[in-house]
From TrEMBL:
<keyword id="KW-1133">Transmembrane helix</keyword>
<feature type="transmembrane region" description="Helical">
    <location>
        <begin position="214"/>
        <end position="232"/>
    </location>
</feature>
<dbReference type="GO" id="GO:0005886">
    <property type="term" value="C:plasma membrane"/>
</dbReference>
<feature type="transmembrane region" description="Helical">
    <location>
        <begin position="181"/>
        <end position="202"/>
    </location>
</feature>
<keyword id="KW-0813">Transport</keyword>
<feature type="domain" description="Cation/H+ exchanger transmembrane">
    <location>
        <begin position="15"/>
        <end position="421"/>
    </location>
</feature>
<keyword id="KW-0472">Membrane</keyword>
<keyword id="KW-0812">Transmembrane</keyword>
<dbReference type="GO" id="GO:0015297">
    <property type="term" value="F:antiporter activity"/>
</dbReference>
<feature type="transmembrane region" description="Helical">
    <location>
        <begin position="299"/>
        <end position="319"/>
    </location>
</feature>
<dbReference type="InterPro" id="IPR006153">
    <property type="entry name" value="Cation/H_exchanger_TM"/>
</dbReference>
<protein>
    <submittedName>
        <fullName>Sodium:proton antiporter</fullName>
    </submittedName>
</protein>
<dbReference type="Pfam" id="PF00999">
    <property type="entry name" value="Na_H_Exchanger"/>
</dbReference>
<dbReference type="GO" id="GO:1902600">
    <property type="term" value="P:proton transmembrane transport"/>
</dbReference>
<keyword id="KW-0406">Ion transport</keyword>
<feature type="transmembrane region" description="Helical">
    <location>
        <begin position="252"/>
        <end position="279"/>
    </location>
</feature>
<feature type="transmembrane region" description="Helical">
    <location>
        <begin position="395"/>
        <end position="416"/>
    </location>
</feature>
């Protein structure tokens, strides 16, 4: 395509992004659905028919664009959460129990379910099967906005937790944390394909699983505390960016936390989320959080626009060329069986910090079902394939992107009705003890 045509298409895409929310508000459609369809439409134009997309050839570009998009989304998710996490208070850890259950139960079950399905009945090589499970396990902070919290608020007392929003909190906190915690399992697949380093399983458990996770969280939390102290409480007025309402602090925070964590070999994704949550927790009653979240959200919208249009375009230009029945089975099984079942099981016996019953049957169904797959999966696959060779790489590209498309359409259509169903059900129960 000529540069002039590219400029025209990008301009039209930006205009589409600007008018899209108002246009589709009355229908049960999400913006990602429309963007993917628009990209497919561009790919079917006569002027673009000569273009072909080989994900292996453009892998570095895909990796870096997806990486930046996920980083921006993680900062936005961390700033959006009103529920503080104070490490020294046991009760604070309890309020995050939905996140711990989704990470400790749902995520391993999802990885194991996808990997065993691919390796056993479908005959995929073990390294590729493990990688497939790892890259498809994380829920997406980029595409799941319809089922997540909307943004930071100033409602409630300093330590009050909104128990009525457990579903949105669970899905939001999961999306923020599991994008980093998928990395150990991606590395397990890389070791299976390339050969384990010295130390074998113990090296993986001690460093890839535990060590890098701890380093990433510590770097993010410490940097977040320092930046929040400077922005809100510094003795020098010139450093109190909250008073100047300079939202670029959020962008600086995500770049610093990611860069520092990666420099000391920690997980940068976790560092960014930990940094954002810490900044939000240090000084909760400030409008500055909404300003930072708004700036990050606009940047995320632009990056997501480019990726979704590109994904839709690639669907019609060869990205799905290696999709077969095995890939279709993996995608359908993940979206309709593996993730919903793993998510539902994680909350059996769940109780809130007040000792009352946790999510009810309907809420468990929603949390289990809405494990949206998206840009994070694209990044992990590009990262792993760029680190070592996988014989079934092109098949995995087709399978992963098919699964993302399936998730975008299924979850995009059902998200608004499902959340409205839960919200309407809560209204008659307001002020009354819920029947669990």
């Amino acid at each position: 395509m000529s540069p002039t045509l590219v400029y025209c298409l990008l301009g039209a895409a930006l205009l589409l992004a600007a008018v899209l929310p108002g246009v589709i508000r009355r229908w049960a459609l999400s913006a990602p659905i429309v963007l993917v369809l628009a990209g497919m439409g561009v790919g079917l134009l006569p002027v673009t028919r000569s273009a072909t997309i080989d994900p292996v050839a453009v892998r570095p570009w895909i990796e870096h664009l997806a990486e930046v998009t996920v980083l921006v989304a993680l900062m936005g998710v961390g700033l959006a959460l009103d529920r503080p996490l104070r490490p020294r208070l046991r009760a604070s850890w309890g309020t995050w129990s939905p996140a711990w259950r989704l990470l400790g139960i749902t995520m391993p079950l999802t990885i194991a379910g996808v990997a065993l399905l691919a390796w056993g009945p479908l005959g995929v090589a073990l390294p590729a099967a493990v990688l497939l499970g790892a890259v498809l396990a994380p829920t997406d902070p980029v595409l799941a906005s319809d089922v997540q919290v909307a943004g930071p608020t100033l409602e409630g007392a300093e330590d009050e937790v909104d128990e009525d929003d457990e579903v949105r909190f669970a899905l939001t906190s999961e999306a923020g944390l599991n994008d980093g915690l998928a990395f150990p399992f991606v590395w397990a697949a890389i070791f299976l394909a390339a050969g384990a380093p010295a130390g074998g399983v113990w090296r993986w458990v001690g460093w890839e699983l535990v060590g890098k996770t701890v380093v990433g969280v510590l770097v993010g939390a410490l940097l977040g505390w320092l930046l929040a102290w400077l922005a809100f409480r510094s003795t020098r007025r010139s450093l109190r960016l909250a008073e100047a309402e300079e939202p670029l602090l959020a962008v600086a925070a995500l770049l610093l936390s990611y860069g520092l964590a990666e420099a000391v070999h920690g997980y940068g994704f976790l560092a960014v989320f930990a940094c954002a949550v810490t900044i939000r927790s240090v000084e909760r009653m400030s409008d500055f959080h909404a300003a930072m979240h708004g700036a990050v959200e606009r940047l995320e919208t632009l990056l997501t626009l480019v990726l979704l249009l590109g994904l839709g375009f690639a669907f019609t230009r060869g990205l799905l060329a290696n999709l077969d029945l095995r890939g279709v089975v993996v995608g359908l099984a993940l979206v309709f069986v593996v993730r919903p079942l793993a998510g539902y099981l994680a909350f059996l016996g769940h109780r809130t910090r007040r000792g009352t019953a946790g999510l009810d049957h309907r809420e468990r169904l929603v949390v289990g079902f809405f494990g949206v797959r998206g840009i994070g999966s694209v990044f992990y696959l590009a990262f792993a394939a760029g680190t070592t060779a996988f014989t079934e790489e092109r098949w995995m590209w087709s399978t992963v992107t098919f699964t993302i498309a399936l998730s975008v359409f299924v979850h995009g259509v059902l998200a608004t009705p499902a959340m409205r169903w839960l919200d309407n059900r809560r209204e008659p129960l307001a002020g009354q003890p819920a029947s669990r």
